[in-house]
User: Fold these one by one.
Assistant:
Number 1:
Amino acid sequence: MKTITYREGVVQAMADAMEEDESVFLFGEDVAEAGGPFKLSEGLLERFGPRRVRDTPISEQAIIGMAIGASLSGLRPIAEIMFADFAGVCFDGIVNELAKYRYMTGGQVNVPATIRLGNGAGAGFAAQHSQSVENWFLNVPGLKIAVPATPADAYGLLRAAIRDPDPVLVFEHKHLFNHKGEVDDTPHVVELGRAEIVRAGNDVTLVATQLMRHRAVEAAEILAGEGVEIEIIDPRTLVPLDIDTVAESLDRTNRLVIAQECTHDGSWGASIVSRLMRDRFESFDAPALLVGGDETPIPYAGGLEDLWIPSAERIADGVRRTLAY
Amino acid sequence: MSPKTQSARPATVPLEEQLNWQRAMLEIRFFEEECHRLFARGLVRGSTHLAAGQEAVNVGACRALRVTDTMAGTYRGHAAVLAKGAPLDRSFGEILGKADGLCHGKGGSMHLTDMSVGAIGSFAIIGAHLPIILGTAYAEQYKGSDGISLCFFGDGSTNIGSFHESMNMASVWKLPAIFLCENNLYGEFSPIAHTTPIEQLVDRAASYGMPGVRIDGMDIGVVHATVTEAVARARAGEGPTFIEAMTYRYKGHSRSDPGAYRPEGELDVWLERDPLLAHERVLVEAGVEQSVLDEMRATAEQTVNEALERAMSWDDPATEARLEDVLA
């Protein structure tokens, strides 16, 4: 085992994928010469050359189009969208072309494109550079969505995404780039659609992704001190979703809390609750609870942003409330 | 390649090939007329956008490409996809929503696609495919091949954002691409003068550092020669070209549109410039007997009718088919 950062997991995943498969290449804004605005592609240009690591103009629609066209032609493109909020600029390309291409051509094409996006709040980048936007794409059949929280998953899910024959959106959380974690000496692919049971417990099922997963772990410590043992599940992939792992946990704990870095409506957490209400109604001893951000865009001032993002204490409080029912 | 209003027509295209052009244009014209009738009879759902009148642009351009070169077009794409080599019956089949249509009934008139002949898609979002051909063109460079990508789009598309991103990036990366604008003077119901501050769309090319040329899109010889030149540039690594082909659609924007916004007499002027009649005159001047051309016309009509009959006899998709092909 070795310890690496989330950032290093991303870089290594792309390097290993490019080493293994000549058809893999990366492009985006400042990914080549500068090694990426967040250094997520550091060293790749030097190692693989300008054909395989390319800087684009500030042109998100062109970036997504490139990814689509290249993957139709048998290549495996990795496109970087610097801030996930910018997906608004290329929303058409993602939802109307990338997602629908295979279906509306009657299966004539595979579109093995990987789109990486810089997700999430916590660094004071304000409203247009801080949103976690994966929920924008939940209603779009034809896409897969990965949300790694750890260096091992940042590596493993990205490798899986690149290998996947379908379009995959990989959301990399900006506040986790320096986060350290253990990986195998030879890190491996993490299959899409498999949740991780981060912590076992019998009192409450807590589902959380990315930054919220780490805050859930902190909340678990707080709660353990109060005699409450929560089970933390990180779905790691929102589409396809490993609902079975969550359902099995709910069957044992009978109480569900979701910690998500977004608002309530149209969220992946609300989707999980809805599915389990449909399929595991009898397993609920209390209403499911969503702990999320305020119903506002993300504010700039540090104190305000900190309040927007659910804290470990707020997550713990959600667990207490569901137990009090 | 400096902006000019007409390309020279080479004397070198073999007569056999020029006859093939005429055959293709005839089949497309009859195909579009059948589509028009099918809608009138209520046999086709949704809407359809016919390219009758624009055949010379689609056939002239596609016949300057290899089958392995890629072409993307718009929802007014029947002519382009047929010109690229898609079969008549499966094209009808898709428009009729049949299981054996090109896209197995999943796409319809606006999304005709035949990857086997390099017709990589027809798109219903204006300008959406222009960024996509950046990727197909880049892939050719990446793989070290001399293949190229061509996209058709209308005059209205030159006002949408993806046009600008695509023209810019194709130029700065010197991609082997051709941007072929079919200027038929109207974006949906709006005359171009109401939406566009310049009269010659070719003027936009220079602002992207891209050679541009404006041509008579009703003259198939000129279209073919111009695209041939652009193809050669692209294959030689000299980068993309913008071509503005002046043309006209004989039907309205879509099935429900009778085109009443067109000034009186305008349609008649363009009907006199029918590309099929124009090329027929060229062939006669080249020594082809009128009887040969008449027979070609009759055969084309029969071929199209037979293809339609076949397609109409096919089954509808199975109900489970609606759940297929979301993911690989």
Number 2:
Amino acid sequence: MSADRDLTRLLDVWIKEDAPSPSDRVVESVLDQITRTRQRGPLGPAERFRRMNTPIRVAVTAAAIAVVAVTGLNLLPSGGDRGALAPTMDVPTHAPATAPATSTPKASASLEAGASIPTVISGPTSGPGSTEVKPGTYRLRGPGSDPAGWPRAVMVTIPDQWWARSALRGAGLVRGEHEGVALATFDVSSVGELLADPCDDSLPYGESVEPPIGPSVDDLVAGLTSRPGLAFAEPVDITVDGWSGVRLEVTPPSRCGRATLWLAHSYEERWSRAVPEGWRGLIDVVDVNGLRLVVLSAYDPDAPADVPLELQRMVDSIDIEP
Amino acid sequence: MDQDLIRRAQRGDEDAFATIALAVVTRLHALAYKILRDFELAEDATQQTLLAIWRNLPQLRDPAQFDAWSYRLLVNACYDEGRRTRRWSPLLRLLPTDGSPGSGGLDEVVDRDQLERGFVRLSLDHRAVVVLHHYLDLPLQDVAEVLGVPVGTVRSRLHHAMRAMRAALDADARTATQGVAR
């Protein structure tokens, strides 16, 4: 092709070529879903004033309402046995770690000696929706796609009725296929940024606090508890499989539809963790020999009574291999 | 977009929203398709965008800004879809039959495929800028407003995108020339 070709002219012509039309199912599916999808409330006066002085911001909500669940858990098979699970998506994920109750001694691992560890299913490979995670024990991968980045294997036992949602990054689960009533997410040494305003839902992400938070448990706890509008109960010392940490209980402010707690990243991927309005959020931050394991579990107070118990059992099931 | 429709949808009127959805779906899908270059992903992104519009519409203070606001939702949905899967589906296109024979017609085909290949090598951020500016003909300031980034960032991304595409086209041209020379 001639070097003198007018790229801009060509691009203008090419890019304006007709695109294929969407199928009818797109709108049909949406109209079906909105009947059970709640709208956010309008912005309050203070928030409107704040946004008047900034560029137009798009209030975008993740497709999975109230779901912070990440693309799912990337599990490394034990001995090459992947079990009877759906193919794993090639995305960097972090093992979710659930923190035990603050005063509960380490629960024994649910793994049996010699049991093969199946590979976790992450989100479906196409289309919106979820992939059901079969109940069982899963090993979680560390930061990025390099398993060597996480020197220890972390296992967690996932009960029935938990799903990995599509179009979500990181590692996380939602209780229930559609309207999630609880979530559990896991970040291994990937939490790096806090939003200046947890209610800032600008695209792709709101303004971060500078400088980025430090790598320790105390750094994250101090950073989170100093965020405006987030109400935390007094931090409580915990242990997860013998490793020390801190548990924070957070209540999202009523002024935002969901409170973004932090941004995590690994290689080129970034994702947020948030707690929906009205939910109860528990953040467990654990120091595993210098690596920070952060588990977010949250649930709708109107969820069935066994849901918070399930979350706690998942946390209690965490087993960190030496 | 009929602002009365928007106001009604903001108050939960599902019929009003249905009208809005039907009015914008083709445009949003075209945008998504041009960014993602994948029909299925574009449908998914469009669907997620429409849902996001429904959920967040009450927070749109100025209904007159609906278009820019929806574009931003769409771009973000494209980011989600594009990062969820890194697969790239080669596109099959009907070749134009009205082109002149010989080098003119061939150049059109070569240009289109080369542009496609050059474009899909761009990151989503760069693709979004190219599509908003060249497909929607939005001025750079408006592109910056939609994306929520400084206009300098938009200029930088556009410059990088055009440079990358030019390099890809030139590389293809060198390959084609070498092939002919054999």
Number 3:
Amino acid sequence: MKKLLVASTALMMISGYAQAHNAGCGLGTEIIGNSDSVMMQAFAATTNGSSGNQTFGITSGTSGCAKPANFVSNDLHEFVAGNMDSLAQDMAQGKGESMETLAELMKVSAQDKPAFFASMQRNFNQIFTNETVTSAQVIDNMVAVLG
Amino acid sequence: MLGGSSLQICRRSVVGWLCSPLLFATLPSWGESTAAIAQLQQIAVERQLHQQRTWQVLLHYQPTLFGVESLIDDRDFFLAADGKQNPEAELQATIAALFEQPADPNQAPQCRFIARHHWLRQQLADTPAVAAIPRLTCGHYEELKARVAPNGVTLIFPTAHINSPASMFGHTLLRFDSSRTKSPLLSFAVNYAAQTEENNGLLFAIRGLTGLYEGYFSLLRYSDKLKEYSSTENRDIWEYPLNLTAAEVEQLFNHLWELDQIAADYYFFTENCSYQLLTLIEAARPQLQLIDHFTLQAIPVDTIRLLKEERLLTSSHYRPSNVTQIHRLEAELTKSDQDQVVALIDGAITPATFVETSELEPLRQQPILDLAVAMTHYRFSRREYDQATFQRRYLPLLKARSGLGLAVVEEPPRMVADPIQGHLSKRLAVGIGRAAGEPFSHLALRPAYHDLLDAPLGYQVGAAINFFDLELRHYTESNQTKISRFTPLEIHSLAPISPLIHPLSWQVRLSWEELAPESSHYLSQLRVAGGYSRWVGTKLIAFGLLEQELTLASVLEAGYRYRLNGVVGLHGLTIMDRIQVAATLRQPLATLPTQEREGVALELAAQWSGEVNRGIRWRSSYRPPSVTLPAQSGVEHQLEFRYHF
């Protein structure tokens, strides 16, 4: 039975989308799907087909991305690792949904948010240091900036 | 009753200490279980529980000619051998299965079928035997529930992507709004999709249309779905929070849990994503009768309209895609600003240099960099860059932008129409006309979806998709009624070029039409065209396409005619936002096998839509004299009333 084949350990360990399609733990990992022809893309939209894992087991980790040196919640690392591009874009602009989410995950209070966004934007170069920066490094850099 | 007499025995007996409550509770004897099961099953029969709406909904039973059958095709969903067709047997088997206690409680039916368990307990709450049902700890379920923390449900509607009209029907999924987190990006989304590794586009379509794929529900972060729909596929998204109570949300979640890794055959037209989502919403509130409305087709936007009728929608939230944002930014910039963007994304100037040397003030530099960033992302989504190139171009732009501070300008409010306000999907037309000098009256029926002259509110500009349009005519003079045209498929994708993005425009039409009013012959025709279109002002689109046309007809000497046509035209919205016009010129450039030189054909049409579902359309066409198909030449006029329902 399919059910019995599912991992019977306490935590479901099956990682879904991110593992199947992530090309790494840095920038340029938000674009998902394989390189399909236009035809294939057109037809793919008809069935919304997915070759990814379909269980409800949600990853508890970050799809194999190295953890930051600082101890942070899994949710925070998972979010940064999976949303590097939009986080970088929003951080450079000093606003945006990714930044709001980051603030929530880092437990920034409502009144501290404007200063938090401004600080992150000002220190963008220290956080997203180079093209191949990884999610773990970004988190550690953020922690360093926040002091 | 049973438990009570056992306790009495325990109190009176010498070895009563063996009857400690804990021991008794965790290890009911086999005899007691059997008796309890029998009793519960009997009461279930007396109360005809299997006939109740909730049971029918949880098991996805649908009436058939001979009784009922579940829409679920997976053996693992049923506990009785004939559970797929027999609600009573399934209910009896479920009652018995609630007593099972395997080594891993997560595998127990009680923990796999949470919604059924809860409902049965509730229905049998007044019977003493219900106390004999063991209470297992369903660890995996509890964990997932704590993680997702569902306390609201939002319907998510990614709309079409312009160059993929097959996606024009859109898609629907659900999002669990969480009591644990605020940001939607951290919420979890429920998606139903066909599972496949297929790489051949045509096979993919055929199998998706005929139920040869299995569909499964999946649960993943909403941010992952946004990456897919908004960033990669560049589709706008509409979000509609649903009006469900906390208890209903929990029941929906519990039923979804029951469907983990359970397959149902996927049918693109009928049992598709939107249809299956409705079954989840019915599980939340069984009094709702939703899927009954969708026997022949389940078009996503129609399912959303039904939810609105049922007062389940309260508000809507619009999320523009990356491409939509790009077009918005383009419109805000002057030509020279746009040139700067091009220079940046082509690498003619580095972002750092741009910021250093630009004469513009920082506030004016911001949108230029923002657009360059969005364009870089767009090109990456189109696979024009590999990951390394993307990283090299993306980061310097962002570094430069971060030095310019916050954007002070407030974003203008969005003026985009909610898709559910658009005209309905099925269309009936009644009219009169004149073809080759002969008057006719005309009746046409189309099950889906939208053409270029229909009221554009809520639909994507320049995109049209029609299925199975059937036109009948009654010619008054010759007194004959016949099919004048049947169009299984017609797609238009006129995606206007913008300063930075130059998509291809294309159209396809497969049709079967009468040769001429007085003829009993028919011809089949396939047209495939590609080219470009552009805005003329803000309301008209001009297009130029190269078209390949293949006509098959018995009256043709060779049986076929192939032509290469040049097609130019204009289409758009003119006076008072109520009138749509279309003009098309078609000039054959080369013909096989006869190499005749035919003149240009012309089509003019206009429609006035008083309201979105009702319109009056006029159409006139001229076909020049033809050597290969002489019967087709001539002038035709038509005036019709159109009604969407």
